[in-house]
Amino acid sequence: MAPEVAGERLVGLARYGRVHLLDEVGSTNDYALGLAGKHVTSIVVARVQTGGRGRFRRQWFSDEGSLTASLLLFAGAPDFPRPSFLVHLAGLALARAVEQTAAIATQIRWPNDVTVGDKKLAGILCEGRRNAVAVGIGLNLNQEQLPEDLPDAVSLRMATGKQWDKFYVLENFLREMFAGIEQTGNGDSAGVLADIKRRSSIMHRRVEVQTLLRRHVGTVIDLDSEGRIVLRTDSGRLVVIGAGDARKVR
Ligand code: BTN
């Protein structure tokens, strides 16, 4: 059975695109990208996702307590954010949405994990097909506990002691996402970036960044206008890194 959603909430979601409520699906991103030919902004939400993917083709844990959803966008307009920037915009939108929902402070762990007290609350996977981009969000929402092999993860329930309506969080995310896209389109990507930096848990911190090919260790001195890390390595070199995993080190 597809997830139950109150009528007024559905109306709220439908303001942002065509809503697809699924009972069980492999990956909401795959489902969303399968709709790309229709050229309609769409929102896909699944009660259960059986083959969720994380960044770098990792498995993504989710269960009925999770929010698993994808927003399908079309990069037609000239002022539409570049996919590389959309990744950061999505992290910011989700961090803001969680804060608005639960009045809890969140951070962004580059590039776009949403964390609470250094534990991972949510991850985002953006995948493209031609001019369509699926922004997939996986948020640990109502789990009372998470699997033991995820010691660095937390759910919003574990962090707040309360249960949350996943569609309310999703609506907050969609509002923030489209507000960010508009802000960027209006030429204020600097304003978006400033908020990302303010929330970043790695700014001015010593980190290890693992890219597909290399490992860098150094201090993050800035995020550039594309949201890439500007790192001063321990050997004094400046490197700019567009994709990878960052973790704080001493
Ligand atoms: C990560 O942190 O590695 C990103 C995780 C993204 C998971 C979400 S869940 C909804 C969407 N569908 C997927 O298969 N992945 C994303």
Mean pLDDT over the residues:
95
| Number of helical segments with 4 or more residues | 6
Say how many strands there are.
12
Strand content: 25-35%
Give me the side-by-side strand order of the main sheet: 1-2-3-7-6-5-4
Largest sheet: 7 strands, mixed
Shape: globular
Oligomer: single chain
Hetero groups in this structure are:
biotin
Could you tell me how far the N terminus lies from the C terminus, measured between alpha carbons in angstroms? 48 Å
Q: What share of the residues lie within helices?
A: 25-40%
Q: Strand-and-helix sequence, N→C? A: HEHEEHEEEEHHHEEEEE
Low-confidence stretches: none
Structural class: alpha+beta
Short structural summary:
The protein has 250 residues and is α+β, with helices and mostly antiparallel strands. 28% of the residues lie in helices and 32% in strands. The protein has a seven-stranded mixed sheet with strand order 1-2-3-7-6-5-4, with helices on both faces. The protein has a five-stranded antiparallel sheet with strand order 11-10-9-8-12, with no helix packed on it.
Written account of the structure:
With 250 residues, the chain is an alpha+beta fold. Helix 1 packs parallel to helix 5, helix 3 packs across helix 5 and helix 5 packs across helix 6. The chain starts with 6 loop residues before the first helix and ends with a strand. The strands form two sheets. The chain has a seven-stranded mixed β-sheet with strand order 1-2-3-7-6-5-4, with helices on both faces. A five-stranded antiparallel β-sheet has the order 11-10-9-8-12, with no helix packed on it. It is built from six helices and twelve strands.
